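Notes, Module 5: Reading structure tokens.

Key idea: the token line is not a picture. It is a compressed description, and you learn to read it the same way you learned to read a sequence, by spotting repeated patterns. We will look at two proteins. The first is printed below with its tokens.
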Amino acid sequence: MARVRFYVATSLDGFIADSGGSVDWLAPYDARLYGYGSFLDEVGALIMGRRTFELINAVGEWPYRGKPVFVLSSHALGRTPVGVSTATRGLWDGLQQARQITHRDIWIVGGAVTMQSALEEGVVDLMELFLVPVCVGAGVGLLNDLRACQTLVFDGVEAFPDGVVKLRYVVPKHDTPRA
């Protein structure tokens, strides 16, 4: 079965976006240097929260052309790029839809609430965190507000010359997932 993955950059002080929702602080760091292209080749579908979708969709060209994207939202999305669908019944609905169309990995793109829900629901298999040597000061935290301790299994580290560090963790399964 496809793995469900986090692949996310976070500032050293734990933010995935600044207080305005922007990730402009990532601009000096070229994702190609960290294996983003290879990662994206392994992904068959994406799941993201509505706010993340709206932020990404509002700026420039849609970056996930050719990849099915399931946006978690109980409301209509308005104008959507080709390949974007709404998962109206939440995370499990999105996962079920994604698993029906791909046997490749599924990327939980975000935001913090979506990532927290996926982790708490026990659907995440692998976390790849890129610590970027920037302190944002305030903004959107990596995970919204976890309700329980999550123990992860260390699976590797990679340091890059520009100071970015990739941490990789396997998320152990404790219960049988619902989906």
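Here is the second protein, with the sequence above and the tokens below, as before.
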Amino acid sequence: MNLAGSWEQHAEAWIKWARSSPHDGFAGGTWPALRELLPVPGPGPVIDLGCGEGRASRELRALGHRVVGADYSPTLTRAARASCPAIPVIRADAAALPFASQSADLVLACMSLLDFDDFGGAVAEIGRVLRPRGQLCLAVVHPFISAQDEDTLHGPASGFSRPYLQTRRYTDRVEREGLAMTFTSMHRPLGAYTAALTGQGLAITALTEHGAGAIPWLLAMRAEKIQR
């Protein structure tokens, strides 16, 4: 099963998980990190790429951004539309976006770049749809975390049996407070992200790491389109 299929398979579980704030780090970690990197609202549109059930789109709208959500999962697309009918949400492949070239002020990729089957195609599409000086704000699981062996992801000690620089698929199964969620994603080293962005004419203007543990669990970046 590809990454998109895995997300559709677990879509209902994700909706419950994402809308139960104690169950993941969005409210207290991911969103504050991204909010610090966001530009002031402009004329838009802002594309929330891989919008899932819509929580980042709703936050963007509350800040005054003109948002369009995009996700490949039909279940998550329907959930995002229902959660805020004022936000347009389209079902779209991240590597073939139905937006005109140079049409967006901002692309937000909140914990989604690690879940696209065609990572290179998705980054190319981000570069295409952004206007000159448009910006990308992204957050991913920190590569220091995703490089770990799966059975040590939530344990007291970290295990690394495969090379950090080796891109690979991994599965993280989590149970908290009576809910369970399966995340199937790609580990990529930091250099894979930076090379993909710069290869599309995106200059990284901010990079932050977050997490109170020995290893940060969150990586956030902002990049600006300076070419093409």
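Summary for the second protein:
- The beta strands are 46-49, 67-71, 89-91, 104-110, 130-141, 168-176, 179-187, 202-210, 218-225.
- Residues 16 and 56 are 15 Å apart (CA to CA).
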